[in-house]
Design a protein that fits this description.
The protein is of the alpha+beta class and 334 residues long. Helix content is 57%, strand content 17%. It folds into 2 domains: 179 residues, Ferritin, core subunit, four-helix bundle (Ferritin, Up-down Bundle); 129 residues, Nuclear Transport Factor 2, Chain: A (Roll), CATH 3.10.450.50. A hairpin with a 7-residue loop joins strand 1 and strand 2.
Length: 334
């Protein structure tokens, strides 16, 4: 049976998959022309929302923190869906098939895992049945629209579906493996390789710690300096020229020192004031996962939002920075 950290990582992977699906469904619902199709899509989106609630409950029951965010590949899925919605209902549903196909196949793989606890197996099995039903519906509907199997349109959509899986599955698997390896900030805090440090630790303490912890604390100190002063140069100096920087608002990552400068300036300029508190920092083999809550003001409105950042470092330089949070929850406070 997978250990607790592994189970939480798997559940959070599926949780993010359902967040991906909810966003793709929303695009399709907004743009589909047939009322009958829209009603079906709303019903199936509700299935994904139920999956989110059930998976999050399983994560919390194991002492974990649910990842209430899409995958980094979620933007790719939205692009696929948005391109499909530029045509008629058949074109939209052909694009939708590519997104739903990955969800169906991924749930099937997880449902085939026999070593999960019974409560986990039952939730995953039920969700896998939902995904099979969703995919069967879109295939049947495409046949009604004259775009079913054997047509040129369907063959093209199936090719896009295969490419989509080829890109999305390895990226999502890598993220899940990282969460398993560190015991998961977005999950349990019990793995042997984990080292938890408080936000209040001074950078001077880094001399007593392994080099990777010192690197992470320097990053935290530079972020706080940026938030307090607005000067981006301190944090930019930590980034390698080959670095990639992104958050959920970015369709493509920012690159290099100049990209980091643009990213962090945009971050600070978004707030009149902002401060981030780190509730947990977990490090392993050059990667740190930082759980945070930020409070500040935008246009006079107090705002609070939370998320997780993954910082990959080598030789004291940031090679990759990814922040995960829900922009909609921040925007809802304005």
């Amino acid at each position: 049976m997978p250990d607790t950290a592994g189970i939480i990582a798997d559940l959070n992977d599926l949780l993010q998959l359902d967040h991906d699906a909810v966003e793709a469904y929303t695009v399709a619902i907004d743009r589909v022309r047939s009322e009958r199709y829209r009603d079906a899509l709303v019903q199936y989106r509700n299935d994904h929302k139920r999956h989110i609630e059930e998976l999050a409950a399983l994560v919390r029951a194991r002492g974990g923190l649910p990842t209430e965010l899409p995958h980094p590949t979620g933007a790719l899925k939205l692009v696929v869906q948005a391109l499909g919605s530029a045509g008629n209902d058949a074109t939209l549903l052909l694009a939708f098939k590519a997104v739903e196909g990955q969800a169906r196949d991924k749930y099937r793989r997880f449902a085939a895992e026999t070593d999960y606890p019974e409560d986990v197996k039952s939730v995953i099995a039920r969700a896998a049945e939902d995904e099979t039903r969703h995919y069967a519906w879109v295939e049947q509907t495409l046949r009604e629209l004259g775009a079913g199997a054997g047509t040129v349109q369907h063959a093209a959509a199936s090719a896009i579906e295969m490419v989509h899986k080829f890109i999305a599955d390895p990226l999502e698997r890598a993220e899940r493996d990282l969460m398993r390896a560190v015991g998961s900030v977005v999950g349990t805090a019990k793995s042997a390789g984990e080292r938890v440090v408080a936000d209040s630790m001074r950078t001077a303490d880094a001399a007593k710690e392994p080099a990777s912890k010192g690197d992470t604390l320097r990053f935290v100190a530079a972020l706080h300096a940026l938030e307090e002063s607005g000067d981006v140069e301190g944090i930019v100096s930590l980034f390698d020229e080959s670095a990639e920087i992104s958050n959920p608002n970015d369709l493509v990552p920012h690159r290099g020192a100049e990209g980091a400068r643009h990213f962090w300036r945009a971050y600070r300029d978004s707030f009149e004031e902002i401060h981030s508190d780190f509730s947990r920092i977990v490090e392993r083999e050059g990667t740190a996962m930082l759980e945070w809550t930020s409070t500040g003001r935008i246009h006079g409105h107090p705002v609070t939002y939370a998320g997780v950042s993954v910082v990959e470092m080598a030789d004291g330089r940031v090679k990759r920075f990814r922040a995960y949070f829900d922009p909609a929850k921040l925007e809802a406070q304005l």
